[in-house]
Design goal:
Elements lengths: L1 H4 L3 E5 L4 H12 L3 E6 L2 H14 L4 E5 L5 H15 L4 E4 L14 H29 L2 E6 L12 H20 L5 E8 L2 E2 L1 H6 L7 E2 H13 L4 E4 L1 H8 L2 H22 L4
Parallel strand pairs: 1-2, 1-4, 2-3, 4-5, 5-6, 6-9, 7-8
Amino acid sequence: MRAYYENKVAVVTGAASGIGLAVTELLLDTGAIVFMADIQADPLNEHAERLNARHPGKAKAVLTDVTRVDQVNSLVEQAAAHEGHLDFLFNNAGVGATLPYEQVTLDCWKRVIDLNLWSVIYGMHAAVPIMRRQGGGHIVNTSSAAGVLAFPFQTVYSATKFAVTGMTQCLRYELWDEQVRFTTVCPGNVATAIFQAVGKIPEDAVPVDEAARIILEGVARNENLIVFPEGCRQLRQIPDEQLEAFMIQLSRERHESYRTKGAYF
């Protein structure tokens, strides 16, 4: 795996926490230069300083609002100019949304679409021309298990993630002969601060460092879809009737959970 990333220039959005931070750390450990982008200034700078102590000069903190096209353009251009090439773009920034449809306001739709979909579009729009000119590169877009499986109570979230999955796969085939590679990452539950904040980490949640390893090993193998954990892969393989029965039962459980606890878990 190290040979695929060593001395390469990578951009990682959402790099101040969760999967983005774990991917950043592992990229640095494999010898890459990482432009860390996030909107959270304090943790971004703190983590960059900590990582530069281990990898001097290789972690570049760039305060970025990924819903702003000008800021995403600036981020990608800075990275490409650093050593004259841009090898990886990890469009990882995003936001969750699991709630009953009647609670999904138009403002919620806009916020989730801006963060989960437009930010990916902005990143690709900036990076693809650079990678085409230089003769290759690899774009890794974080979708979700909810981008290949339609879980109840995730209407707005799933809409954005199915869109990310679809457009990433379209471009994988369209730009294959130009050596611009595309990979879609579809995580299920990962033990990040999102779950820690509510005090309940799902039993099947993958540790965040394990998620980073799965992702970077899959990218190095040029995998199309990286779906994990195992339970999500298994769900995709069961017959349609069984899958529908599972989702209907899950919907009933979530309805009951919202009714009694005001949350889906």
